Amino acid sequence: MRVIAVVAAAVLVFAGVGRAESGRLEWPLRPPPTVTREFDAPSPDWQRGHRGVDLAGVPGQPVYAAGPATVVFAGTLAGRPVVSLAHAGGLHTSYEPVEALVQVGQLVDSSTALGRLAPGHAGCPTAACLHWGAMWGPASRADYVDPVGLLASTPIRLKPLAG
């Protein structure tokens, strides 16, 4: 056990200086939109909930990639136009209803317009809303997360150790 601790300490001491990518996302609608419906994580995962956020927009408005990614789906799913992206580290984001301008396999970043916002999102209080979702891991075991918490503009707050 002591040998493992010494080896671990040596690795840390002699490790080079690393550079971490922030991994933080940008708003998919510009300027930053109003959130019309917030994230509501289902518990357990198969229960009802809202696995993303709805953002107020206008029909035809460009929808941008939230960050560097690869397009993994661009088409119609359950009668709705959807674009899905795979980001580094296992994060996936989805955007609907979006009439795609991108193709599967295409590399995108936050300056890439994925498509145009279509009207008709159920429960939207404005002319058009973008449903923006985020999840870690494969769809069969996805952990849905609030995409607003992944934004570069959202401050990181650490919880205290005690109390």
Can you offer a commentary on this structure?
Residues 49-136 form the M23ase beta-sheet core domain. Mean pLDDT is 80; it is low at 1-21. The chain has one helix at 2-14, and strands at 35-37, 53-57, 62-64, 69-77, 80-86, 91-96, 98-100, 107-108, 113-117, 128-136, 143-145. Strands 1, 2, 4, 5, 6, 8, 10 and 11 form an eight-stranded antiparallel sheet that branches. A three-stranded antiparallel sheet has the order 3-9-7, with no helix packed on it. It has one domain (25-150): Glucose Permease (Domain IIA), CATH 2.70.70.10. The chain is mostly beta strands and 163 residues long. It starts with a helix and ends in an 18-residue tail after the last strand. The protein has one helix and eleven strands; from the N terminus they run αβββββββββββ.
